[in-house]
Design goal:
Layout lengths: L1 H9 L2 H20 L3 H18 L4 H21 L12 E9 L10 E11 L2 E12 L13 E9 L12 H6 L5 E6 L3 E4 L5 H21 L6 H10 L8 H10 L9 H17 L4 H18 L4 H18 L6 H15 L7 H23 L6 H26 L1 E3 L2 H25 L3 H30 L5 E3 L5 H17 L6 H17 L8 E5 L7 E5 L5 E6 L10 H12 L4 E6 L5 H4 L2 H7 L1 E7 L7 H11 L4 E4 L3 E7 L2 E6 L12 E6 L2 E5 L5 H7 L10 E3 L11 H7 L3 E4 L11 H6 L4 E4 H4 L2 E5 L3 E8 L4 E9 L3
Parallel strand pairs: 3-5, 11-12, 12-13, 13-14, 18-19, 19-20, 20-21
Antiparallel strand pairs: 1-2, 1-4, 2-3, 4-5, 4-6, 7-8, 9-10, 9-22, 10-11, 15-16, 16-17, 17-18, 22-23, 23-24
Helix pairs in contact: 2-3, 2-4, 2-12, 3-4, 8-16, 9-10, 9-11, 9-15, 10-11, 11-12, 12-13, 13-14, 13-17, 14-15, 14-17, 15-16, 17-18, 19-21, 21-22
Length: about 800
């Protein structure tokens, strides 16, 4: 039966092209995930088995083997890990080069763009950097794609993920052949006189037309309607809607419409075709001119992956029409994906690329098969446009949405159905009015009439989004699915799709039930009964997560607050880790003191998790951070506990957490000190307290021989002395630190701790300790393999 199935499948060129593209993408993925040896071995074994069993003709097996290795080596040759600019970072310098992307940002007073550098401090070089320019009082009209500038500012390396679940900005920028970032003020951007090449002159003129169109609409459309129209028509790569609009549309499951996509490309061509057909223009001219319109529109949107995908597919279809050739949808999709990845293998890491292709594949398979079953119905056309597309799209996009965003938009399907007529109207009017507004004499009158209708449609769109966004449980937070779980999910979808066509469904039904059962079982989290301590790498700050043997969670300090419109370390590191693992309840949050590098993320933890108890060293602190925390606590159900001397925060069998409050002369010396005890294991967390604070509470401490000693104040000079080390007898010292101007950790402190095993977040990244009654291990986060690797295992004391 298997041989018959494979024989039938291999005769379908859609299947051949799709499988070939999958092998090509497997080679690229093997390169980016550093698993070429394992993947190549598995693929080789599979191909050998198929060859021996003669299930598939040898020529196809040879083709797929070649395509896999070609994908791997093409990626390894085209993707570079560094460039000449990287050798100059970090430095304050002057760079000269060309803006190669549309300057854009969703934050007021900022613009970001890619910059191809030709000179640094007057010396010839070659490289690309991402420039961020700031100016609160400028519209940045002096910055334009294609122009050459000399910019004075700070050249830096982008941060790389040193914690589990953390977004790796450096890896992200590598996808754009960029290895550095550059920060400057707008006044330090000096335009140079340089002749534009025809290519850049053309692109700049397109950008100027887009800006002219938006200025014409700006007279009658105000924020956020103007940005929403710009996002729908030109894409978020060209026009960035405000963050609050993005959040609302994200909650309602409508975020995708703010970015130009395949739907926009189809609508643009559809409108063009409709107009010219009504004017009785010859078909050949319609197709050729339509291809030109699609190309211009794609360039104007900023060349987002989803737009490029849709444009290429449409162009190939139209080219086929010119020579009387039909295209096969799935094979064309596979061919376009391979073509884009051949040009830039890093596209495979682009979320837009993945979402665009997976949704399109779902529509071409699942939606197409279902439509065939209902094609005799009078309502099939309506059902396909209004109901089937949103349902199928959501079924295929859910795993990726969970993987990248830890969310499911509960009302995405009804929300997308509700907006469909308005999106068509907005796209049609936006496109037509944009075309006509290029003609300056009539631009004012065109926008006056069209924007009156557009304002109504855009207001309705925003109201629909707000309605679904404000419904209970509009956005459900989920755990981070494993790749194998996503793979099984899509296999189930494909089998169910095939069942619509298959005559014998009994065996397929059994297989589907087994796979669904397997998928459900894989979601069951089997808890362990170890004590786990995670030291997050938050640079020169503190943040720790404690898991007790009974799987209760405590957080000690939360890192720094948000800076300059960004996000706090708690949000991008701690909360992302908790979301990925489905941790929503925190038994206790211990804020050692109110320095920003310790308490900066407390409000984010309080508002985005269920914190049962919070432990503070003061309830009348006057700092900005503390006032924010007090204000947040007034509106929460979290119990506030003031630690005055000694307090037992938590206890379970053979495990306890005790808090001690020294009374020092400085905020640092008033830090809450935390002692964790489990049978024959002890860990002491000093906050920013040093040996003076320790001396004030030493009589309250039990006699100890510490397994873990979290060194106070990031290893500063006053953090520890010889007497303290002799009394505590620590085996392991952990120092949470990073690049700083204070000289942390101090050489004297390091020398004092020389007889302990010292682990530092600036060297070892995030550090994890796993302990049970018999032994404990220290693990460090490996940036390359994105997981904790064990450094050393210790036997528990008797």
């Amino acid at each position: 039966m298997l041989k018959l199935f494979l024989d039938k499948a291999i005769q379908n060129k859609n299947v051949i092209m799709f499988v070939t593209a999958c092998f090509f993408m497997s080679g690229i993925l093997a390169y980016f995930n550093d698993c070429a040896l394992i993947v190549s071995f598995i693929i080789t074994v599979i191909l050998v088995i198929l060859s021996i069993s003669r299930f598939i003709h040898f020529k196809y097996l040879l083709l797929w083997a070649f395509v896999f290795y070609f994908g791997f080596f093409n990626a390894s040759l085209r993707i570079k890990d560094s460039d000449a600019l990287l050798t100059h970072a970090p430095s304050d310098t002057a760079i000269t080069g060309q803006i190669t992307s549309i300057p854009n940002s969703s934050v007021q007073g900022k613009r970001k763009f890619f910059f191809d550098v030709s000179e640094i401090n007057g010396e010839k070089t070659a490289g690309r950097t991402l420039v961020t320019v700031t100016d609160e009082n400028s519209d940045f009209s002096n910055l334009n794609i294609g122009n050459t500038y000399t910019i004075n500012g700070k050249l830096r390396t982008p941060f790389k993920a040193s914690n589990p679940s953390q977004f790796d900005y450096g890896k992200y920028l590598n996808n754009f052949k960029t290895h550095t970032v550059f920060y400057a003020d707008n006044k330090d951007c000096i335009k140079e006189s340089a002749n534009l090449t025809p290519k850049w002159k053309f692109i700049q003129n397109l950008n100027n037309i887009r800006e002219q169109i938006l200025r014409s609409h700006a007279s009658y459309l105000k924020s956020p309607n103007l940005e929403i129209l710009g996002g729908i028509v030109f894409g978020d790569d060209a026009v960035a809607p405000p963050d609050y609009i993005k959040d609302t549309f994200k909650n309602s499951g409508l975020l995708h419409i703010l970015a130009a996509s395949g739907m926009n490309v189809a609508l643009i061509y559809g409108f063009w075709y409709f107009i010219l057909r009504r004017l009785r223009v010859p078909m050949r001219f319609i197709i050729i001119s339509g291809m030109g319109v699609v190309i211009l529109y794609t360039l104007m949107t900023g060349l987002g992956a989803s737009v490029v995908r849709a444009a290429l597919m449409l162009l190939f279809v139209l080219a086929g029409k010119l020579i009387d050739r039909d295209s096969h949808s799935v094979s064309l999709l596979a061919f376009v994906a391979s073509l884009m990845l051949l040009y830039n293998p890093a596209y495979i890491n682009d979320v837009g690329f993945q979402l665009s292709f997976i949704v399109t594949f779902g529509l071409l398979t699942t939606a197409h098969v279902i439509l065939e079953k209902i094609k005799t119905s009078k309502f099939s056309a309506w059902l396909y446009a209004e109901l089937l597309i949103p349902i199928v799209s959501q079924l295929w996009v859910i795993p990726l949405q969970m993987f990248y965003f830890n969310t499911i938009s509960t009302y995405a399907i009804p929300a997308n159905i509700a907006i469909m007529p308005f999106i068509c109207a907005i796209s049609f009017l936006g496109f037509i009015s944009s075309l006509l507004s290029i003609i300056t004499p009539i631009a004012k009158y065109v926008c006056l009439i069209s924007d009156y209708i557009l304002n109504i449609c855009l207001d309705i769109l925003v109201n629909i989004s707000n309605f679904f966004s404000n419904l209970p449980q509009s956005l459900i937070e989920t755990t981070h699915p494993a790749v194998i779980q996503i793979f099984v999910y899509y296999i189930i979808l494909l089998i169910i799709t095939h069942m619509f066509r298959a005559e014998q469904r009994k065996r397929l039904t059994y297989i589907t039930i087994c796979l669904i059962t397997l998928l459900c079982l894989s979601m069951i989290n089997i808890p362990n009964h170890n004590l786990e301590i995670i030291t997050f790498d938050v640079q020169n700050a503190d943040a720790f997560l404690i898991k007790t043997p009974k799987n209760k969670y405590f957080i000690i300090d939360t890192g720094k607050s948000a800076y300059n419109g960004g996000k706090s370390q708690a949000e991008v590191i701690i909360l992302k880790y908790l979301k990925d693992r489905g941790i929503k309840n925190i038994e206790g949050l211990i804020v050692t003191h109110f320095d920003n590098d310790h308490s900066g993320g407390v409000t984010d933890i309080l508002t985005k998790t269920n914190v049962k108890n919070i432990y503070l060293n003061s309830i009348n602190n006057e700092s900005y951070t503390s006032k924010q925390i007090y204000s947040t606590l007034k509106n929460s159900d979290t119990k506030t506990c003031l630690v005055e001397t000694k307090q037992k925060a938590y206890e379970e069998k053979d495990f306890s957490i005790n808090l001690f409050r020294p009374h020092g002369e400085t905020d640092n010396e008033n830090s809450i000190i935390t002692l964790i005890e489990m049978e024959n294991f002890q860990a002491l967390f000093m906050g920013d307290a040093g040996f003076n604070a320790y001396n004030s509470i030493r009589n309250d401490l039990p006699k100890m021989s510490l397994e873990i000693f979290k060194v106070g104040h990031h290893g500063a000079k006053e953090a520890v002395n010889t007497q303290m080390v002799n009394e505590l007898e620590p085996k392991i010292s952990i120092i949470s630190t990073g690049k700083n101007i204070f000289g942390h950790p101090n050489k004297i402190t390091l020398d004092t701790l020389r007889n302990t095993d010292i682990y530092r977040t600036d060297i070892n990244n995030s550090i994890k300790v796993i302990a049970n009654r018999d032994n404990y291990s220290v693990l460090a986060y490996d940036r390359k393999h994105h997981k904790y690797e064990r450094i050393k295992k210790y036997k528990a004391k008797i």
